[in-house]
């Protein structure tokens, strides 16, 4: 303020310095080439694909918002999941479910209904207690709804959507989703109960090998001996236990997002859930067939809880002997078949 | 009709997060939802770059392919939108999306995440253009007003470009030729199966 001329001179000098400095930087021959050091998306994605150590599984960086998942910039695995979900999942599901239905239809046409060879005796014996039946129908009832709502979320848009229209289908699918989420809990409870109640009867034994070797009486008209559960029934039990456990674990990780990790973990559990689901549906279709249409006298075991004595003798001869010996309070070795 | 795209020039992005803020403000986006975000790659190392990322409005969008209720549709401007009336909040689009674009109002709440929300390219949704209902569900519809997305429009360094694919690719190419370097059009190969050849 005291010397305006001096200020002006300073400003001029500054401007001049800037003007001189700028071209000097531009002309500098060994200036930093930003291309050489800049990260390129293509390089990073190729490093990801090649599995280069230190690159991690997704192309991610630092983020300043609380949502950790937002730090993923690009996750190419989403496309792999899409390809599975829209490709292999449909094929595995179709082959498992339609294949099983086809096998059952052919089996019915060739073998027909497995009838009682000696007819009904009119004498009933208790096969399943009320508690066992309650557990069974708890699992069965929830599984049917879970299976249908699960199939809906995968293939409903190809089958139901064109039939009912997008609004009705969206409403239906939303309710299906809620029922899937909530019925999962009674299903899991039932699976746990089923394990405790029936595990004792489902330990594989040498008898099962014999049963399988003789075709279980399903193929042909043989009646290999069996205890309370034959090898086929044990197979259904273990399929339900292993499938149910896989569905439960994967389902819990899907129902509580990001508990198991990031988006990659959720893709993984979704794949497990889908595959376990369609495979168990196929097994259960066979179970439903043989329990209803496929075998005379089988359904009442799980409805009224009693079966005809002749049915029990034909299909579970050793179990009948056990029951008979228990009821007459005789030592097991002394038991004679009641004729 | 145009083929609308985003292009983030990572050599210009200064990670100011103004695009994120503008987006949240323009659409009244609730807490916990970020339709746009800025990710810094190689933070603190040589070659560090920041990229502003949102829904890329993919060609053959994975979200639309996996949606169980087919709630996605592509507009004449090639913008990928969805109907919140049809969405059941299953999360499949989030699994499939390569860019983490789908957002949900609630997380970890017994699978009831609510309706999916994502970048609309400032072009609303299936409801009537610029109606109160459309604003409440999807946010502002700037495209219907003849404007481009706000994030790109207010970008202070013009790092984030929005507009017709050919036009923004030309702008980017000119920049790269002039300055002599460029780290590429981030996400283009993944979203559109093509990149900007310079």
List keywords for this structure.
heterodimer; A: 339 residues; mainly alpha; Fumarate Reductase Cytochrome B subunit; two-stranded antiparallel ribbon; 3% strand; B: 198 residues; alpha+beta; Alpha-Beta Plaits; two-stranded antiparallel sheet; 7 helices; 6 strands; 26% helix; globular; iron (chain B); 4 iron, 4 sulfur cluster binding (chain B)
How would you characterize this protein structure?
The complex is a heterodimer of chains A (339) and B (198). With 339 residues, chain A is mainly alpha-helical. Chain A has a domain at 125-200 and 228-312: Fumarate Reductase Cytochrome B subunit, CATH 1.20.950.20. Chain A is built from 13 helices and four strands. In chain A, the strands form two sheets. In chain A, strands 1-2 form a two-stranded antiparallel sheet. A two-stranded antiparallel ribbon of chain A has the order 3-4. In chain A, helix 4 (77-111) runs parallel beside helix 10 (263-291) and helix 12 crosses helix 13 (317-327). Chain A starts with a helix and ends in a 12-residue tail after the last helix. Chain B has one domain (4-192): Alpha-Beta Plaits (2-Layer Sandwich). Helices cover 26% and strands 13% of the residues of chain B. The relative contact order of chain B is 0.23. At the A-B interface, helix 2, helix 3, strand 1, strand 2 and helix 4 of A face strand 2, strand 3, helix 2 and helix 3 of B.
């Amino acid at each position: 303020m005291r010397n305006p001329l001096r200020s002006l001179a300073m400003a001029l000098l500054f401007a001049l310095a800037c003007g001189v400095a700028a071209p000097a930087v531009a002309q500098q021959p060994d200036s930093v080439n930003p291309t050489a050091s800049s990260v390129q998306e293509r390089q990073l994605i190729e490093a990801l694909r090649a599995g280069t150590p230190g690159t991690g599984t997704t192309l991610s960086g630092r983020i300043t918002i609380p949502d950790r998942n937002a730090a993923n910039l690009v996750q190419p695995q989403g496309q792999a999941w899409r390809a599975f979900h829209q490709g292999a999942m449909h094929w595995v599901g179709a082959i498992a479910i339609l294949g099983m239905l086809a096998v059952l239809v052919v089996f019915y046409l060739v073998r027909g209904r497995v009838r009682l060879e000696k007819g009904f005796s009119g004498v009933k014996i208790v096969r399943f207690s009320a508690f066992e039946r309650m557990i069974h129908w708890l699992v069965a009832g929830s599984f049917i709804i879970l299976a249908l709502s699960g199939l809906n979320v995968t293939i409903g848009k190809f089958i139901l959507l064109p039939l009912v229209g997008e609004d009705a289908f969206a409403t239906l699918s939303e309710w299906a989703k809620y029922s899937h989420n909530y019925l999962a809990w009674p299903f899991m409870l039932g699976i746990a109960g089923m394990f405790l109640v029936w595990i004792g009867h489902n330990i594989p034994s040498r008898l099962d090998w014999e049963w399988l070797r003789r075709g279980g009486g399903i193929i042909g008209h043989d009646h290999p001996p069996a205890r309370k559960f034959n090898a086929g029934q044990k197979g259904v039990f273990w399929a339900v236990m292993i499938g149910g456990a896989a569905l439960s674990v994967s389902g819990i990780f899907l129902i509580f997002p990001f508990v198991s990790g990031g988006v990659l973990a959720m893709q993984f559990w979704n794949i497990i859930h889908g595959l376990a689901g369609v495979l168990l549906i196929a097994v259960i279709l066979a179970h439903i067939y043989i329990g209803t249409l496929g075998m005379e006298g089988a359904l009442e075991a799980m409805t009224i809880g009693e079966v005809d004595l002749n049915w029990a003798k034909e299909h579970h001869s050793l179990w009948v002997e056990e029951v008979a010996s228990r009821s007459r309070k005789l030592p097991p070795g002394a038991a004679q078949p009641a004729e | 009709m145009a083929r609308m795209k985003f292009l983030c020039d990572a050599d210009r992005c200064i990670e100011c997060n103004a695009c994120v803020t503008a987006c949240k403000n323009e659409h009244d986006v609730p807490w916990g939802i970020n339709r746009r975000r800025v990710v810094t790659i190689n933070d603190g190392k040589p070659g560090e770059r920041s990229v502003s990322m949102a829904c890329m409005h993919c060609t053959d969008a994975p979200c639309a392919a996996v949606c169980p209720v087919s709630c996605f549709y592509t507009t004449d401007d090639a913008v990928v939108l969805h109907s919140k009336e049809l969405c059941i909040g299953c999360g499949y689009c989030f699994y499939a999306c390569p860019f983490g674009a789908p957002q949900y109002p609630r997380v970890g709440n017994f699978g009831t995440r609510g309706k999916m929300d994502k970048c609309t390219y400032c072009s609303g949704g299936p409801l009537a253009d610029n109606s109160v209902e459309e604003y409440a569900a999807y946010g502002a519809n700037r495209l219907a007003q003849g404007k481009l997305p706000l994030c790109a429009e207010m970008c202070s360094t013009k790092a984030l470009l929005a507009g017709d694919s050919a036009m923004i690719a030309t702008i980017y190419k000119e920049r790269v030729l002039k300055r002599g370097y460029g780290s590429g059009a981030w996400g283009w190969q993944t979203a559109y199966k093509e990149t900007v050849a310079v």
